[in-house]
Structure formats: C-alpha cells, structure tokens
Design goal:
Helix 1 crosses helix 3 and helix 10 crosses helix 13. A two-stranded antiparallel ribbon has the order 1-2. It folds into 4 domains: about 60 residues, no CATH class; about 30 residues; about 120 residues, Annexin V, domain 1 (Orthogonal Bundle); about 90 residues, Annexin V, domain 1 (Orthogonal Bundle). It is mostly helical.
C-alpha cells in the first residue's frame, strides 16, 4: 500500500495507527472502544497487510499533534510521580520509593560532625553555652553524640544532658545561627519546627556512653531534677532492645520471668525478639511457652504492654545488680 497518510480517513486511519503503535498498546486502546467501532476497524486491519514507513511516521506525527496541541503544560511534580509509580509498582512500593528519594535530598543539620574527631569537636564546642552544645548533640546520631559527650568535663556533661532532655523544639533560624557559629550553614530544614530533644533522645545518647558514664550523669541529674532523671530512665531500655542481649544474659533473665508474662509480651514482638526467648530455653520450656501462647487467641493490648513493662523492669533490675550485661557500645562494656 502506497497511500499517503493524509488521504486515509475514518476506520482506515485508525487501523493504520494501531499497526504503528504495536500490538500491546493497540490492544489497550481497542479494549476501550465500542464494539461497532472495533468491528469496522478489524475489517480495515485485515485489508491493510503492511504499513509503509512514511505513512507510519505521518500517522504518528498527526496523532501526536492532535493529542497535545490543545493541552497546556503537562502535569508533573510529586503528585504525578506518585501516581505513575503506583501504576508501575503498586502503592506500597511507590510510597517507599518516593520517601527514599525525599530523604536522600534532605541534608541533616550538623551532619559534618558525624565523621569528625570527637576530641576536636569537644574543643570546638567547649567554649559554647551548654544550650548550644545540647542543640548540636540532639541533632546527631546517638552514637556520634555519645562520643562527643564523654569528652566533655563531668560537670558540663550533666548540664548538657539536662538541656538535651528539656529542649523541646527549635526553629530553622536558631539552627542556622548555631550552625553558622561553628562555621557551617544549614542546607535544608523540612519543617517549621523540629523535634530535637527530650528525655528519649537523651536516653538514646546515654545508651551509647558506657555504664559508668551513664550512672554518673543520671546520678548527678537525679540530684538536680529527680523527675526528669526518672523520665530518662524509662527510655533507657525498651522491650525491643531484648534483641541485643547476649545468650547468657537472656538465660539469666528468663529464670526470673513468669511464663504467662512472656506469652503475653511476645504477642506483638518481632521474630528476632521471639527467637531470643525460644533460642535460650530448653525444648520443653519452649513447648510450654508456645502452648501458653496458643491458649488465648485474643489479648488486650493493655495486657501485652503491661507484661512487656514487667519484663523490662526485671531486666533493668538485673543490670543494676550486675547480674547481666547490656552492651551499650561504650568502653565500659568491653569484656576482659
């Protein structure tokens, strides 16, 4: 066939377009047409055994012009990307992808301190106000903040720890001034305010400094603000941290626990935490625990949380009595 694309009309032109688009795209298009139109197009397709290159190019160009000439700017941005990714990968994967890309574009305040020598950072911050030091440490990863905290003088350690716990929110302007003060500038701050302090962040930092430093800071903090020290202690170890406990300590802990508490507590536990219990029990004890868990098909979340709380209290008591060791990453936890 040598007919020019411009002399093709109606069903014949549609048939030529379907050939140009290929079978996959054409099938999707045909599925959206009414049956009478499909019948007429099918007849023309069977009459058009081949489509010359110049006709194909002309048909595609005409179609493109016709589709897009009446449109303004095409939609884009995050909303379009999310819609596209949902269509391509499914909703869960799409949200994960968007989140990962967004996070990769955010520069964390004071990130340049993460790989710096803690001694040098201590020298850099030593002359700063304790509130400024607290603001910097609260923005760092707990392990990094801990390495810097232990380099400070003991009295300053306590004051900085207290201010980390008491700090609630800070503004981008404040962050910019502080970071500029140590000769850096902020690249990105996502929200108008940022949660940077509180008892939980301080607890995460203290979990990394070693047991003796932790005790010294908490003891001194308790003398100045007993209520605040108690709040920090509540965050020092949580049920999920059981995954980090060594086998010997787990066996000692299990001997102190009620089987019913374990059965309740494991209802919402991760597989890793469950394995810490089952893997450190005798076969018979593990079977009894599984049987106990199977006896009740429904348990109130309140009961689960209370059981987990009792187990955590036992673990804290055994650690305070030096019956077990919970590795916190500090020099005090090195076994010799």
């Amino acid at each position: 066939m040598s007919a020019n694309a411009h002399v093709l009309t109606g069903p014949r032109k549609v048939a030529a377009l379907l050939i140009a688009l290929g079978t996959e795209a054409s099938a999707k298009l045909l599925s959206r047409l009414p049956q009478d139109a499909v019948d007429r197009i099918a007849l023309e397709l069977m009459r058009m055994p081949a489509l010359e290159a110049e006709v194909r190019d002309a048909i595609l160009e005409e179609t493109y012009t016709g589709v897009f000439s009446q449109l303004g700017a095409l939609p884009g941005g995050e909303s379009y990307a999310l819609t596209l990714f949902k269509e391509a990968f499914g909703e869960g994967k799409a949200i994960e992808l968007i989140t990962r890309v967004q996070q990769s574009q955010v520069v964390v305040p004071f990130e340049f301190l993460r790989s710096a020598d803690p001694v040098q950072v201590k020298e850099l911050l030593a002359s700063e106000h304790p509130q400024t030091i607290a603001l910097v440490l609260a923005h760092l990863e707990p392990r990094v903040a801990a390495r810097i905290l232990v380099e400070l003088e003991p009295e300053l350690q306590v004051e900085v720890a207290r201010r980390i716990a008491l700090t609630d929110q800070t503004t981008p302007d404040t962050l910019a001034v502080v970071e500029d003060g140590i000769r850096r500038r902020i690249s990105a701050v996502v929200t108008e305010t940022a949660q940077v302090g509180g008892a939980r962040p301080l607890a995460h930092v203290l979990n990394q400094v070693g047991r003796s430093t932790e005790r010294q800071i908490l003891g001194a903090l308790a003398e100045r603000d007993a209520e605040l020290a108690d709040e920090v202690r509540r965050f020092m170890f949580v049920f999920e941290d059981i995954a980090l406990i060594d086998d010997r300590s787990m066996q000692r802990i299990i001997r102190e626990l009620d089987t019913k508490d374990i059965a309740f507590a494991l209802r919402t536990a991760t597989e890793e935490v469950k394995q810490r219990f089952f893997g450190n029990m005798s076969q018979r004890a593990a079977e009894m625990l599984r049987e106990e868990m199977s006896l009740t098909t429904q348990v109130r979340m309140k009961n689960v949380e209370e059981a987990q709380g009792r187990i955590v209290e036992v673990i804290k008591r055994l650690e305070d009595e030096d019956e077990i060791v919970i590795s916190r990453g500090g020099a005090d936890d090195v076994l010799v």
